[in-house]
Amino acid sequence: MRFLAVIILSLGCGLCLGGCETIAQDFNELGASLTPTSPREAAIDMFDQYDPDKRREGTLLISNSPFGGTEIYVTAYRDMVENERDPLVLGVAIRALAKHGDSSDARLLAPRLEHENEQVRWEAAKGLQRLHDSDTVRFLLPVLQNEDESSDVRRAAAIALGQYPQDPVFQGLVAALNARQLSVNVAAEQSLETLTGEALGLDPRVWLAWYNNLPLDTDAFAGGAAYMFPTYTRNRTWWEQIAFWSAPPVREQPAPPAGLVSETRRSTYGDNPDDRSN
Q1: Considering the domain boundaries, does residue 180 fall inside one?
Q2: Distance between the two ends of the chain, CA-based, in angstroms?
Q3: pLDDT over 70 at 241, yes or no
Q4: I need a labelling partner for 146 at 20 to 30 A (CA). Which of 120, 158, 230, 246 fits?
């Protein structure tokens, strides 16, 4: 009874201090903690051909489970990325494949950057931060350069491009410093810093002056840092704080993308160093 009283008191405080959205989220987490979906139920939901909500929730649960990277599920993620029509389910499938797939899966994700749904394009751009394949540059650069694209998608593309030490990538990131959205400017500058090791700020003229004044036999990317995909962190919810029996959330650490190897850092315009100024 004393324990129940603590729970009720905590709920009452939440009602008084929190907003409706937060309260609803906390109640959902409370219910999910008390009656969690079993792995078998999640797998069944993942393949429910009639209910996209079940497919989305099942895929999310499976992909975040300790066994979510087994081959049978990775194969399912690939199939969903290729064939799923519901945009919310497709977005979750892209996220799952980016988390558990290999570099070859980048070529499945890249065409989704052209999907009609913004959420799908955003998930694809974020997914390509985790999967390395130089062929995806030709998909990412147009996204970054598209002024009609949302700032979230362009920012994610700018971050993904930070793993490719190529001259067209450098030029595209410098051009993105002129974007209207500050978040895109900052992401582009951070990727430029990763690629070159230089911290020259948000002025594209400074970056171009540095680049064009390099000696002809100098590799612009020789001082670059190792690329690590970014990860999401959040504060513990009130339920995680009082539910002492539940395991603490696992914090994923930044890491190199799947398939990233040490590349030869050279110009992709050709052997003539004078091409830098074009």
Answers
A1: yes
A2: 75
A3: no
A4: 230
